[in-house]
Amino acid sequence: MTKHLTPALALLALLAGCATEQPSAPSAAAPSNVVPGSQEDLVANVGDRVFFDFDRSALKGSGPRTANNIATLDRQAAWLKQYAKNNVQLAGNCDERGTEEYNLALGQRRAHTANNYLIGKGIAANRIFTISYGKERPTALGSNEDAWSQNRNAITSVK
Question: Which residues face 131 on adjacent strands?
C-alpha cells in the first residue's frame, strides 16, 4: 500500500506547489508605505535631483536633460507648496574632475541655480538652504562618463 501512496503524495505535493498564488505587483490603487510630505515621498513621487552638463551650472542645455530638470523642479515647487511646513536643503555636487576649490564653487552655483528656480516658482527663500559638497559625496562610483554625469547634480533633501 505504501508503494501506491508515495507517488500519490509526491504528485499532491507538486500540485500544491503549483497552486500557490504568486504575489502580485502593487497596483496604483494599493496603499503606499510612504508618508506624505516625507523625504521618501519626495524621492518616490516628485524626484529629488536635477543634473548638469560638464562644467556647467545652468539648467538649460541641449537635449532631454533640460526638460527633465525643469519638470522635476516644477514638481518640487508644487510639492513644497502642498507641504508648506517643509524646509529643504539643496546640495550641489560635482564629478571627481577638477580641484576641490573649483568643485566646491561649482557645486554652490548648481545649488543656487535650483534654489533660484524654486524661488521663482513662489517658494519662500527662507525655506531653502543651499550647500556645496563639491566632489566629496559622489552618488555613483567610477571614473567614466556614466558615473560623472550622475554626480553632476543638485539634490533636494527635506530638513
Answer: 91
| Cα–Cα dist 74/18, whole Å | 48
To 10 degrees, what angle do helices 64-82 and 100-120 make? 60
State CA 91 to chain mean position distance. Answer: 13
Distance CA 148, CA 52 (A): 10
pLDDT digits (tens, 9 = 90+) for 46-60: 999 999 999 999 987
Domains of the chain: which residue ranges? 34-158
- Under DSSP, is residue 100 helix (H, G, I), strand (E, B) or coil? helix
Residue 129: all three cell numbers together: 538652504
List the 49-51 sheet strands across, edge first. Answer: 49-51, 153-158, 88-93, 128-134
Q: Does this model's pTM top 0.70?
A: yes
Q: pLDDT under 50 in the chain at which residues?
A: 5-31
Q: What is the b/e burial string over 117-149, where b = at least 16 CB atoms within 10 angstroms of the residue's CB?
A: bbeeeebeeeebebebbbbeebeeeeeeeeebb
CA distances for 119 relative to 6, 49, 146, angstroms: 74, 16, 31
CATH code linked to domain 34-158? 3.30.1330.60
